[in-house]
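Why should sequence recovery work at all? Because a backbone constrains its sequence more than one might expect. Tight turns favour small or flexible residues, buried strands favour hydrophobic ones, and helices have their own preferences. The token representation captures these environments compactly. In the example below, the structure is given first.
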């Protein structure tokens, strides 16, 4: 059964068929429709997500860098002595304010309140001056002691006022007589 392939094409039956003129175009169209479309591995939504993550990361990094720089500058600016002085000052000022409020609530003598208020204002102005000196030279022990002494003096003044009022109230109680 061996045949030569060339002999097959010589036969008129096979060679008599003609291909239509638009055969090539039809073949190409069918090839295009049957070919599966390749999906892009990098879709636009994926690229947008990656871009958003990168932008958020850069923004977060920038914010953290600025925050760390500000915190490190603040830590360097304040010395341990300044931190201790601030803590002492806050404690004394809270005590002074508490004692002053107690004094105002107990007394009814306006001249006494005015006299002690004037003394406290003078001590406060002195304290502000000493505080300016402390800012100029925060390692000077004499200035630090003057700050603390001023606060102590104000607090002691208020405690003395309280004692004075208590004594006045006790004296007024002894002279009162109850009659029925």
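From this structural description, the recovered sequence reads:
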């Amino acid at each position: 059964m061996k045949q030569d392939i060339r002999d097959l094409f010589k036969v008129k039956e096979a060679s008599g068929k003609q291909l239509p003129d638009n055969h090539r175009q039809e073949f190409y169209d069918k090839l295009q429709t049957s070919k599966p479309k390749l999906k892009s591995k990098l879709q636009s939504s994926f690229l947008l997500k990656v871009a958003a993550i990168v932008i958020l990361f850069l923004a977060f990094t920038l914010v953290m860098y600025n925050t760390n720089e500000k915190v490190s500058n603040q830590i360097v600016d304040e010395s341990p002595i300044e931190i201790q002085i601030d803590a002492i000052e806050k404690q004394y000022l809270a005590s002074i304010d508490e004692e002053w409020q107690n004094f105002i609530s107990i007394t009814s003598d306006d001249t006494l309140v005015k006299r002690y208020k004037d003394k406290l204002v003078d001590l406060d102005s002195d304290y502000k001056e000493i505080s300016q000196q402390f800012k100029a030279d925060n390692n000077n022990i004499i200035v630090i002691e003057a700050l603390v002494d001023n606060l102590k003096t104000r607090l002691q003044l208020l405690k003395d006022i309280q004692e004075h009022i208590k004594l006045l109230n006790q004296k007024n109680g002894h002279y009162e007589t109850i009659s029925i």
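A few observations help interpret the result. Residues 38 and 179 are 112 Å apart (CA to CA).
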